């Protein structure tokens, strides 16, 4: 099993609703003892219902195999009526179809990619490589996600390409990156309820023990990047976070040890 790395000291388990400041800036470093609240959540929920589709039980029953088996074989797209460029994922056991992201959605991904490429150019021993919109099979959960960016080793990417694998396994990945859009943003964030009523990508990545999850939240009232780490499989939660407002420089800790400029990152329209 992969050795778990952390982006800070392991914290004692907290009771629901209790948070404790970590060393450093109290504005940016907090534990995850309580679900995070966002001012524009209700707006996002209303917008999501118009743009993100979840297949009904009747639609799923007409599929020739289980959604997960079809997704793993790369065949689920053939059986789901969705606009070109849509992302079809299995989240919490449900088939979720998200519309194609807008142009500004890709800005943060471009800057993150450049940061990793520069680090590789500067250090021939730098092992990390990035891959955009790669399928990720969550080991042991029966879910399949398509994050905006995955960080793994060049060796793993080359081996997967050589074997012509349709997706990566979650235990091959060191970090995932998600950029929120006005539709479906709630599915990328920590759940509001503790324990969560419904599973989403945040809980799924934690259950699959993906070591690092970088969430770029482009909501106008948030405009913040958050690095989650110390995944707890039993609770489906990350136990530590570090945040940067848009315009501040992100510093990814070891094993990456690189900086990402966010000066030009923009929110979606309010």
Summarize this structure as a short list of keywords or feature phrases:
270 residues, 7-stranded mixed β-sheet, 3-stranded antiparallel β-sheet, 20% helix
Q: How would you sum up this structure, described in words?
A:
With 270 residues, this protein is an alpha+beta fold. It has a domain at 29-52 and 101-260: tt1808, chain A. The chain has helices at 41-51, 57-61, 67-72, 107-122, 154-162, 201-207; strands spanning 29-31, 53-54, 87-91, 94-98, 128-132, 136-138, 143-145, 149-153, 168-169, 175-179, 212-217, 224-232, 237-245, 250-252, 258-260. A 7-stranded mixed β-sheet has the order 1-13-12-11-10-8-5. It has a 3-stranded antiparallel β-sheet with strand order 2-4-3. It has a 3-stranded mixed β-sheet with strand order 7-6-9. The protein is globular. Mean pLDDT is 84; it is low at 9-50.
Helices and strands, in order, run as EHEHHEEHEEEEHEEHEEEEE
Secondary structure category:
alpha+beta
- Please summarize the sheet with the most strands: 7 strands, mixed
Count of strand segments? 15
Give the DSSP E fraction (strand runs of 2 or more residues).
25-35%
CATH-defined topology of the domain at 29-52 and 101-260: tt1808, chain A
Instruction: Determine the number of helices (DSSP H or I, runs of at least 4 residues).
Output: 6
Protein name: Uma2 family endonuclease
GO molecular function: endonuclease activity
Domain Putative restriction endonuclease: 83-261
Keywords: Endonuclease, Hydrolase, Nuclease
């Amino acid at each position: 099993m992969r050795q778990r790395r952390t982006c800070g000291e392991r914290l004692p388990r907290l009771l629901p609703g209790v948070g404790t400041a970590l060393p450093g800036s109290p504005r940016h470093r907090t534990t995850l003892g309580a679900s995070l609240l966002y001012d524009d959540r209700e707006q996002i929920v209303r917008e999501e219902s118009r743009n993100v589709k979840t297949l009904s039980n009747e639609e799923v029953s007409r599929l020739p195999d289980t959604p997960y088996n079809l997704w793993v074989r790369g065949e689920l797209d053939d059986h789901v009526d969705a606009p070109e460029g849509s992302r079809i994922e299995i989240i919490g056991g449900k088939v979720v179809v998200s519309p194609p992201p807008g142009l500004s959605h890709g800005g943060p991904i471009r800057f993150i990619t450049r940061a990793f490429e520069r680090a590789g150019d500067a250090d021939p021993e730098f092992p990390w490589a990035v891959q955009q919109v790669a399928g990720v099979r969550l080991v042991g959960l029966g879910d399949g996600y398509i994050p905006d960016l995955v960080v793994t080793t060049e060796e793993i990417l080359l081996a997967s390409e050589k074997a012509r694998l349709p997706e990566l396994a979650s235990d091959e990945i060191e970090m995932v990156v998600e950029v929120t859009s006005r539709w479906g943003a709630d599915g990328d964030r920590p759940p509001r309820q503790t324990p969560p009523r419904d599973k989403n990508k945040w809980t799924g990545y934690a259950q699959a023990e993906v070591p690092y999850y970088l969430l770029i939240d482009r909501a106008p009232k948030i405009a913040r990047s958050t690095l989650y780490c110390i995944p707890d499989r039993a609770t489906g939660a990350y136990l530590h976070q570090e945040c940067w407002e848009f315009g501040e420089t992100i510093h990814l800790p070891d094993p990456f040890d690189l900086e990402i400029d966010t000066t030009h990152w923009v929110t979606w329209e309010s």
